Amino acid sequence: MNRRLVAILLVAFLIASGCTYLIWRLLGSRLGAARQPATTRVVAAAADIKLGTVLTASNLTTAELAGPLPKGVILDPKNAIGRGVVSDIYQGEPILDSRLAAPGSGGGLAATIPPGMRACAVRVDEVVGVAGFVTPGMHVDVLVSGVPPGNQAVAAEGTEVKTILQNIDVLSAGTDIEHTPDGKPQQVQVVNLLVTPDQAEVLSLASNGQTRIQLVLRNPLDTAVAQVPTTAMANLFEGAPKPKPVAAARKPAPKPKPFSIEIINGGKRSEAQFGTPEAKQ
C-alpha cells in the first residue's frame, strides 16, 4: 500500500477521533448542567439556636439550596444579625424572616410577643402543667376551681370549676426560683401564656391564691370555642343513692304511778289501791 495513502488515512482517523471527543465533552457538560438544578446560597444556622437568642455572626453559616426558595429566606447575613429568634432554629436550617423578631426589638421572651398581645406568667405544678407536656407552641384551655366569694348558697354545695379561657398559646414553660416566707429558695413551674390585655386581667384574678388553676392540653388544629357550663362539687353526686334512715329503737312505755282512793261506806272507811300488782289481782 502506498505510504502516502496510509499517512493520509492515519491523519484523518486522528482528526475524526479528536472531533468526536470534543463533541462528546461538549454534549456531556450540557446534559450534566441540565440534570443539576441551579442552587442558591442562603443563610443557615451554624448550630441549634434557642428561642430569644439575639443572632450574631457566630450563629450563622451558609447553605446551598436547589430549586425554588422558601418564602422569606434570608440571603444576606446582615439582614439577620442583631435580631431575636422567636422560635427554636436547628443546625443547618435556613433562616426565615418569619422566625426572627422585627429589627430593633431585641431578644428574649419580649421579642416573641406580637403587637397588641401580652405574656402572662402562671405558676403551676407538674400535674397542673399536664405532666410536663405543656411546651412552647402548644394550645391550652385554662380552668379555675374554688368557692365563689360572697355566695353562701353555692359555698354550701362545695367547690366550683369554670373554664375561663380557651385556645391560648403557650409562649414558654420552665422553672423559676421563688423564696418562701422564711427566705428559703424553691423551684416552681412557670408557664407564660400569650393573651390579650383583657385575658391578662382574668388570669391575674384567677391567680389570687384562693383559687387553683388547671391547664388542659388541646389539639392546635381545634380552634372551636366550646360552651362549657360551670360544674359544682355537688353536681358530681347527683343521682347517687341516699342511705336509708335507720329507725330509732322504741322506748318502753313508762309504768303508771300507783294511786289510792279512800271509800267511805256509812261508818266504815276503806282504801283501794290502783296501778299496783295487788290492785290487778
Description of the structure:
This protein folds into three domains: 1-30; 39-111, Type Iii Antifreeze Protein Isoform Hplc 12 (Alpha-Beta Complex); 117-236, no CATH class. It has four helices and ten strands. It has helices at 3-35, 152-157, 197-206, 277-280; strands at 39-45, 60-66, 118-124, 139-146, 160-179, 185-195, 212-218, 231-232, 259-265, 268-274. A hairpin with a 2-residue loop joins strand 9 (259-265) and strand 10. The chain is rod-shaped, with a radius of gyration of 45 Å. The termini are far apart. The mean pLDDT is 77.
Record keyword descriptors for this entry.
281 residues, alpha+beta, Type Iii Antifreeze Protein Isoform Hplc 12, 3 domains, 6-stranded antiparallel sheet, 4 helices, 10 strands
Derived from helix and strand composition plus strand pairing, the structural class reads alpha+beta
* Number of spatially distinct domains: 3
Count of helical regions = 4
Assign an overall shape. rod-shaped
- Helix and strand sequence: HEEEEHEEHEEEEH
Q: Poorly predicted ranges (pLDDT <50, ≥5 residues)?
A: none
* Rounded mean pLDDT score: 77
* Beta-strand residue fraction: 25-35%
Biggest sheet details: 6 strands, antiparallel
DSSP strand tally: 10
Bin the helical content.
10-25%
**How large is the radius of gyration?**
45 Å
The end-to-end distance, rounded to whole angstroms, is: 176 Å
